[in-house]
## 1
Amino acid sequence: MTVIQGALFAAVLAYASVIDIRTRTVPNRIHALLLLTGLLTVSLSSVLWALTLFSVFFIVALATDIGGGDVKLAGMCGFVLGKAAVPSLLAGLTAFVVFTVMYCILRRKPIKGASLPLVPFIAFGCLLFLMNWSG
């Protein structure tokens, strides 16, 4: 990953986070921007990681409230980060679960049916990778 690619990736994730917080959607233009970012250093490995993570998130989405935009975003994270997307997404999902549980406890709301944006947490996990990658 180049410095330019890392900066573009972070900027697009920040933009996607703002949109998801405001609208609970991830527009296709976000995925297109991430695709272009990933094309800067595309490899067979990045394509395979994109397909793998998209598939895993798709299967999970069938049984949960994860939206299609989040599924596509996970695939694009795999495309840009390759195998590093796995710990990045796990960190983001862990932060999401902890935040959701705390939010529901403090608001005295049931966890089932809680609707919170996922993209900011995915972005958080990916940014942790970028900070570690850059030294």
## 2
Amino acid sequence: MTLYVDRQGHLINRATWLALTARPEYVVIASDAVAVEGRRVQVMTMWLGLHLPSGRPRVFETLLHAVGGNRPCRWMWPSLLQAQAGHRHVVDELTTGQHLGVYGE
């Protein structure tokens, strides 16, 4: 059974979750475009609000997608603070020349 949680990790019902997913200002935590070797790379961190019975909670997700790339890379975070820090880490790695070895593959 899927459980739904808000950005603070509190359980919410499905109707509340659906209402929150319709609010971009609630869903999008951070979004940055970074130029890496002449390619535009988009890094976006979003609230998903899902706590699935198997594995780690999927409360937040950071996606890294190179324009023209085949597939995005993703990181999952259980808390807002970890999601914010993770987003900054990905952007910092890209802007300082660390390419995480994964974008645009």
## 3
Amino acid sequence: MKFRFQKLGSIFVCIFYNLFFSFVSLEAITIEVFIPLCDGKSLVCGKGKAGDPRSLEENLYWGAAFGAETFFKRNSNFKILEIKERKLDSPILRTLIIEKKRKQNETYTKLIIYAYAGDKIDNALLDFLNASSGKSPADIIVWSGHNRLMDRIPPKLQSQSAKTVAVLACESEKYFDSVLRSIGAKPIVLTKTFMAPEAYLLEALTETVSKFGAEDKKSIRSAMIRSYAKYQKISLKAAGSVFSKLE
């Protein structure tokens, strides 16, 4: 009888572990996002303080409805773990650490989002490119904001190691693709047209890589198209023209 109970106990333990590890993955994905706030002196950002390069509460890319902090605070599928305020003289005004609430068979995924002062966009660009060349432990590096390479030549960098990268900015394939590949980075999202780099695209990217990983470019592109069509209220065909097909 004792042996029978021990055997049944072992069976229950095995079942528990199988169920537990089917839900909880030992792996994790970290996505690092660089967002220079919209600067009305050089861009059309909208009314009021939407173009104030240091207004976290009202800036188009941070405090507006589809700005990063506002969007994720209202999103029940995500949880803000920590908010770090600016250190003295730092170009980064605020940092958010956010986790995606994990569902069965998903990989635990965390976002680290930096709000750069819009008038410090060159600092943001350099930090993004350095991270893309391997100077960051994150799994995926994302730029979301104005395409600064439309205005200036890229800084000189040396390749460190391959990183998976997404650039949510107008015509990012034209301006960023060769630069990223020259430093060993692997783009998974680039754009072909002018577009709005808003937070629902970060949501779509995060949800897709948590399900399928960062190598499934087809699923990632499809998710970006669906999300962009939904929030911009355009057809899937029109949204599909925005995002590059990457091999």
## 4
Amino acid sequence: MAHTDHANIGLESSDIKKISDILQKYLATEIALNLKIRNYHWNVEGAMFRDLHLFFEELYDAGAQYADEVAERIRMLGEHTHASMEEYVKMTIISEEKNITLPAMDMLSNLLKDTEVIIQEMRKDIDVVGKCGDQGTEDFLTALIQKHEKDGWMIRSLCKNK
């Protein structure tokens, strides 16, 4: 359970809790996505091995940064981040990858689907955050959507290489 020591930043405690819960969901999701990408990085095979191995490395490096930024945003609100895999598994909005022998194109397809799910969910949550009056987190989530949109574009472009 996250500890609360809300910042005095002009938001109601109940709104900070609501916003923090939204951000905790994205922290869990970024961590789950990062693990999935690392799995793909380690296990990709085939004609596009080198290109995809390097691409997946770029994605998981960026994803680690995304997770760090989400965690720091939670802390800016005076909340503590969740810290257990059990909590992350419960909160993530994407599915876990258990198959380590997927064809490369299936890996890309899965990542594209996950990226699109994240973007769609964030768009909904921006409205919730906006109703709480937290322009900082609204802007933060908008910037994070843009990063995921760029990742999605890159993945979609690679999917056309079938």
